[in-house]
Design a protein that fits this description.
This protein has one domain: Roll (Nuclear Transport Factor 2, Chain: A). The chain contains four helices and six strands. A six-stranded mixed beta sheet has the order 2-1-6-5-4-3.
Length: 150
């Protein structure tokens, strides 16, 4: 039953992200957490505060305003005080230049009593970097900005 509840909640969180609403995700974090995105680029790096993580989502939506995730599988393992969640997804976005791109990857999440203590976003980093490079060439300076970290 607990694992089914977690899967339903994860689907709702991705639904919010698909609507460009990061607030439900931000509310899901524990008091101490790590939010990380693989790669050395404008979306890469790690954050440990809500302020920095909010800025990261704001940047994500500025660079990829129509980002959309289709969930393939959600695995949940463990007890409520130590839960591991793995989400396999396909993603599409048109950047700010209207070029449709597809990517895939996984989110790895650690939960403690329903709150996220770790979220690692693991996309195909070559695809992400190519999108950001293309946007930078189109004049979107933020696509080559330093990662948001704290």
């Amino acid at each position: 039953m607990y694992h089914a509840i977690v899967r339903r909640r994860v689907r709702k969180l991705f639904g919010a992200v698909n609507r460009a609403d990061a607030e439900p995700v931000l509310r899901a974090f524990a008091g101490q957490f790590e939010h990380s995105f693989l790669g050395d680029h404008a979306l890469g790096g790690s954050r440990r505060t809500l302020a920095a993580t909010r800025r990261w989502y704001e940047r994500l939506y500025r660079l990829l305003p129509d980002i959309h995730f289709d969930l393939r599988r959600i695995w949940v393992s463990g007890a409520p005080w130590n839960t591991l969640v793995l989400v396999e997804w396909d993603e599409t976005n048109s950047g700010t230049d209207g070029v449709l791109v597809e990517n895939s990857g996984v989110h790895v999440m650690r939960l403690s009593w329903g709150r996220a203590t770790r979220l690692a976003i693991c996309p195909d980093t070559i695809g992400v970097k190519a999108t950001l490079d293309r946007l930078a060439l189109a004049g979107v300076a933020e696509a080559h900005a330093p990662p948001i970290a704290d």
